[in-house]
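sorry for the late reply, my laptop died twice this morning and i had to redo everyting from scratch. anyway the thing you sent over, i finally got around to it. pasting the sequence first so we're on the same page, its 417 residues, then the predicted structure underneath. double check i copied it right bc i was rushing
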Amino acid sequence: MDHVSIFLISLSGLFLSGIAAEILFKRTRIPDALWLVGLGILIGPIFNLVSSDFLEKLLPFFAAFALIVILFEGGRQLSLRSLKSTVGRATLLGVLSFGVSGFAAALFSWLGVLIGVLQDWTWLKAGMFGAIVGGSSSIIIIPTMQIGQVKEDVANLVTVESAVTDAFCVVLAFVFLQMVLFSGQADLNSSSDGAVRLLESVGFGVVLGGLAGFFWVFILPWIPSSYSYLITLSALFGFYVLVQELGGSAALAILIFAVIVGNAGIIGRLSKLQGRRLIGDEVGIVHLQLSFVVKVFFFVIVGALLRPPFLPMLFGILLAGVLVGVRPLAVRWGLMKSDFSQDDRKMINICAPRGLAAGVLATLPLTQGVSGVDDLSTIVFAVIVTTIVVFAVFFRKLQVSIPPSPETSVGIENNGA
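ok and here's the structure:
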């Protein structure tokens, strides 16, 4: 067969495998991400049907696309009007869980220096590492809560928490990445120069994102409803490049833009603007299909790139154990004086899988020229797989011991992170 035929057959196989993984997810309660990672392991390290060099070259392009989708959908879903009773508690839990997990990962990273999987290490790089793996994954948690019919208040709590930590992961990972890059530039005369450059980058990103967001709210009524989502997403690709070229934080700019556009209806009413100011009705269908494609490709790539050397993989597995182990501490602090039962707390304790956001962010330091991070992707991929396995195992056990809720309403759509 020629290359075009092989490509089309491979694409068909991936999409069908993604559908099969979702069906298995519904029947077995084992997240579809785990089935997709297993497929990647089969076609990668076991049968060598795909070259790791090819995937590593492809990953930066895919990562940029996936990151824009994650940022836009994650920010757009932060309206949360239907979750007023849990937003405060969930945000607190998100801050605590991200802080505790990120700090633990940053400290644990120095073990990686001792065993040689991380080189030329600094506390800035440790902070970046902690930000990358500090948050839980909404792409795993949200569908699991829905399919598992978890109690509404528990499902809403961990859903909002995952959205909050997704945002923290992206923003703080980029902040630390820029600090690392600025600290290594020869033209900076002092640490204060680096701090000024960082503040300029972050501030520029916030301002541009805010201006672009309000401009988009203003012109939304003139964008055809049936194309509003795709036009907006297309504009974001160009906006990302523009902000980056101007020296701003492109990730932060898109996140701010997305939050404003996600609340366009409220902003329009408060500003007394006339006209329909909502992304089109087809957004749910388009996003589901787009996030499906991103999810299938990402988790298959994760499995395919889990290759020797095995020391970084072992380090990632150990780190996953640390992240799972410290989560109950954050949950205990975050749920103080709350009405959640002991069974509810057990369910919340296990909601610590890492996913798409962590994996995409893990590819960026190496592509940006940061030294000593050659094995970072492998470490983070091992963390993702291990935390998903732990989550799947304990979720099934709790489903047996705790009767499922007959009705579960999750207030945020799956944002692909």
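The chain has one domain: 3-401.
thats about all i looked at so far, will dig more tmrw
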